Amino acid sequence: EIVLTQSPDTLSLSPGERASLSCRASQRINSRLVAWYQQTPGQPPRLLIYRASSRATGIPDRFSGSGSGTDFSLTISRLEPEDFAVYYCQQYDSSPETFGQGTKVEIK
Amino acid sequence: EVQLVQSGVEVKKPGESLKISCQGSGYSFSIYWIAWVRQMPGKGLEWMGIIYPGDSEAKYNPSFQGQVTFSVDESISVAYLQWSSLKASDNAIYYCARLNGPAGLYGMDVWGQGTTVTVSS
Questions:
Q1: Which of B45, B49, B61 sits opposite A88 (nearest CB)?
Q2: What average pLDDT score do residues A59-87 get?
Q3: What pLDDT shows up at residue A5?
Q4: A56: which residues sit within 8 A by CB, 6+ positions away?
Q5: What backbone phi and psi angles, to 5 degrees, belong to B91?
Q6: Quick one: which of A90, B3, B13, B32 has the most CB atoms within 10 Å?
Q7: What are the tens digits of pLDDT across the range B9-24?
């Protein structure tokens, strides 16, 4: 099973700042099959990024993903108030698919 | 509108059985895999497995194999997640999600609203 470790656990930032989230895999992920999801309290997760760097439908371009192999990242170029949430990476290269433990982006 | 609508809150006792549902609409239900994801209170997301409505092929996370069963009724565009004997550790929110693209290449793009399951004596 591929273990995904996200860092940091919590990111304290102000609106307008840049957020950089990391997701490291315990083994190589082929074909960059990594997705990123955003979850706000009481809501289901929302798909932001698939295949490491492709934005899902309707996702603003301030969200970007990158990476390959074992290291992946999500960047939010300028935080909007609605971006304060928990973010999860997920690998879907090998079964069982796994999620990282989440990074909480909170208002500083 | 493409959507997945899940059944409502469930409160059960340990040892009871349960079947929750996830109804798809606005798209061709048969040709998209459906995933089930667990979120225990205050915790992260766990992939339970997937099922293909077209032929009911299912793939389980070994951690959940034998503990739950996935099924579908293609005729009414509904996927099910069931337990034969609930435990207190099954307390969680359960989400269904659609896998978009061939073999889910484009991620889980549509999610149900979640079903809260509470198991308590």
A1: B45
A2: 98
A3: 98
A4: A47, A48, A49, A50, B106, B107, B109
A5: -60, 120
A6: A90
A7: 999 999 999 999 999 9
Give the pLDDT confidence of B35-93 residue by residue, as tens digits.
999 999 999 999 999 999 999 999 999 999 999 999 999 999 999 999 999 999 999 99
For tokens 């579908």, name the residue: B72
The shortest C-alpha distance from B40 to chain A (Å) reads 12
- Concatenate the DSSP letters of all residues of A35-77 into one string: EEEEE-TTS--EEEEETTTEEPTT--TTEEEEEEEEEEEEEES
Q: CB contact, 8 Å: A51 with chain B?
A: yes
Contact B107 A47 (CB under 8 A): yes
Across the A:B interface, residue pairs with CB atoms under 8 Å apart total: 62
Contact between chains at B108 and A35 (C-beta distance less than 8 A): yes
Task: Tell me which residue of B59, B43, B36 sits closest to A94, measured CA to CA.
Answer: B59
* Separation between Cα atoms, residue A89 and residue A51, nearest integer Å: 11
Distance from CA of B111 to the nearest CA of A (A): 7
- Whether B105 and A99 lie within 8 Å, measured CB to CB: no
- For residue B63 the two structure tokens come to 């951690």
Is residue B102's pLDDT more than 90? no
Residue-averaged pLDDT of chain A: 97
Report the relative pairing of strands B115-119 and B10-12 from DSSP bridges.
parallel
Interface check A45 vs B, CB under 8 A: yes
Which residue in B47, B104, B111 is closest to A98 by CB distance? Answer: B47
Residues facing B93 on adjacent strands: B39, B116
Q: By the 8 A CB rule, do A47 and A30 touch?
A: no
pLDDT of residue A72: 98
